[in-house]
Design brief:
The complex is a heterotrimer of chains A (305), B (327) and C (251). Chain A is built from 11 helices and 2 strands, in the order ααααββααααααα. By secondary structure, chain A is mainly α. Helix content of chain B is 72%, strand content 1%. In chain B, helix 11 runs antiparallel to helix 12. Classes of the chains: A mainly alpha (305), B mainly alpha (327), C alpha/beta (251). Chains in contact: A-B, B-C.
Amino acid sequence: MSLLLFIEQVLNGLQFGVMLFLMAAGLTLIFGVMGLINLAHGSLYMIGAFAAAAVSAATGSFLLGLAASLAAAAAAGALIEVVVIRRLYDKDHLDQVLATFALILIFSEGTRWVFGSFPLYLDVPSYLAGSVTLPGGIEYPLYRLAIIAIGLLVAAGLFALIAWTRIGIQIRAGESDREMIAVLGVNISALYTIVFALGAALAGFAGALIGAIQSVQVGMGEPVLILAFVVIVIGGIGSIKGALVGAILVGLTDTLGRTLLPVAFDTFMTASAANAVGSALASMSIYILMAVLLVFKPTGLFGSA
Amino acid sequence: MQRETLINIIVLALLVLFPLWAWQADEPFMITLATRAVILALAGVGLNLALGLGGMVSFGHAVFFGVGGYAMGILASHAQSYEPIFEWPFLFEGSKFMPLIWLVAILSSGLAALAIGALSLRTSGVYFIMITLAFGQMFFYFTISWPAYGGEDGLSVYVRNGFPGLNTLDPIQFYGICLAILAIVLFAMSRLARSSFGLALSAARQNEERVQAVGIGVFRLRLMAFTISGAITGLAGALFADLNRFVSPVMFSWQTSGEIMIFVILGGVGRLYGPVIGAVLFIVLEHELGGLSEYWHIYLGALLLGVVLFARGGLIGVLAGREVAHD
Amino acid sequence: MTEPILDIRNISKSFGALRASNDVSLDLRPGEIHALIGPNGAGKSTLIKQIAGNLRPDAGAVWFNGRDVTELDTVARARAGLGRTFQISSLAMEMTVLQNVVLGAMGHRTGPFRFFRPVMKDRALLAPAMQALEQVGLEEFATTRTADLSHGQRRQLEVAVALTLSPRVFLMDEPMAGLGAEGSHRLMGFLDELRQQAPILLVEHDMDAVFALADRISVLVYGQIIATGSADEIRANPEVRSAYLGEEEDA
């Protein structure tokens, strides 16, 4: 494999990684602050993608579509937080899993009901279409490059939000000690709704960005959700830093595994066998990564308890 | 407790009488529905051991369901194509013989549960849920990308496997086999729940520290329960594959794990017959609501949400009172 | 002098800058009640955890029954004969009282890997279980759900479960906590006799009980044992008085 191809795959891995981070950040925030495991996070991703596709198709503006994804996912997040999720904070994880699984069923079938079973398409805007030539002569799609940049910007913004703002202080206080935020005089139920809506908005945003690369369809959220789970298990549940490191790790492992493993097996197998074994192993690579990591660190890279 | 026993007896009687009626009325589709319910109930009974008695929230039981299914698919497909599975240390050409298929399904899914459990039980709480879910995805993507046994398209078996003395192609006879297995497993589970193992496992769910303080290691206890649990769900997978004469990666999907969990919850967690009632209810809803609306999962979701928020004991809990029966 | 059954040798444990156990040595001999007292935050819980096997000391060793058990976990130490009761009742709350003691008897005798015989009909387990209940006076509550017991009864059940293990040593973490005067008094009488069965390492806040019962008392302050001796010696020890008893008498 040429070096250029390798670098291109690294960039693809990074792009996948920052997307996963947008999902994982919300999940891990919600778990860290409210102690809630939220399977419906994938539905919020889907809602963001559908909102973006519908609005940009109606208005012709990709940016309006992105704005719609943020608004729709945040609104849906706030709505389910108020109606369902807040009844789950003091229940056990099994109840949380089941109730949010029920929400997936409702959201998925509801979306199918409204939009039908055919996928929608979201077009990459003209100013981000095409590819750019990177130093070293690599041709790389501009849109994917933009996703990496946007993802890293959002990550930086999130770290800044948590480090410097009032709400960030409250979030950190909530993570370390739930009773303390009550002492600080914070309106807990409002804080929870805001955190949940923030996580939802990030997921919806990720859905919209990816929606322009893949098709927008029901069920698109759950595979990403499960990968985001792997990310936060690897990073340590509750840690934003862990989510970022885990996301990049998973993104790179998955992408590079898919290209490198078949090539690696090719050196001592027939091409078709190498392709079969390599791609089978590659599809499992991140789970193997997770399993190996857990043997050594059962609470993830940056997890505490 | 009396009421719960009464409900159990009624359910069992229905499982015997309804298919007999369908047989008399010449409604083979109804028998197939009942067979589905019984097999899914068996899968749920397996999960209930880990989830209800052991408190291990496994979101990856589709793995065992799928491994059991593929055990059947692989054995039977080799037998129908006359290509040996292996030639050393002895020639093995696959099998269409149900008892052998069941044995292989139980052993292979039990082995998978042992390996997954050994890794996953190092963690607890949310980590455990997510890791079992992730292992499910791992098997799912593996079966999709492994071309030898159909990959994404799955694997068909043209003739149902055989059982000595019975015509398994006759729906009522196949139903009888499935119901007999469910009854045997339910009996074994009722004994297990009352045994030393059941008491210790249940105590470990309630208070891990207490169990350790009396000198019982919790890890081995849970791993054993998880393994048995996986093996039972695997047996259900083999039967399910035989019912459909088809296996596909869908058996490994996370939705399958979720559905097996739904059976347990709808009926009532930790109740012996919980998964049976849950699976029957699920099939009835699928049939009735599915007839009413293409989007019946919305109603299923709403019902599940209602059960979680307002009726934690499931259907049995609503009918027989909240308390799980004691000896 | 008889050999100690439980011998804690120079153990230390730090959490960051906090030295929770600082070169602690402590032993327990057959037939005695050895009480461990100390103000809150002195490091009693940390010490108990190291004795029971929840925590590994950074340095030093725990010897039990002539054997170094420092590397063993709680399960192995329980099997070796360490009968422990917890500060906050640690029971299987959904099970009956009898099931809790049967669990103890099972842990000590048959182990959990029996899958088919009904455990609540196993005479070999029921007999010691009932006997333990009788010993603490809970036999009439055998079929009561544990969650329905009063606080005091739960404390008794804790002791009963420890009894089913036929332990060589009892490790009791504040067994009197939350008991009324009458309950404390009854438990004192019980512990008084129990020491003949197996010696007791007693961590207790109730000073009257400690001074009435203990053969020896050790005082733990800031992770260090500042004195060990008989009740009279401890009462007369000026260091103990200033560090600890003085405050306690004022309170």
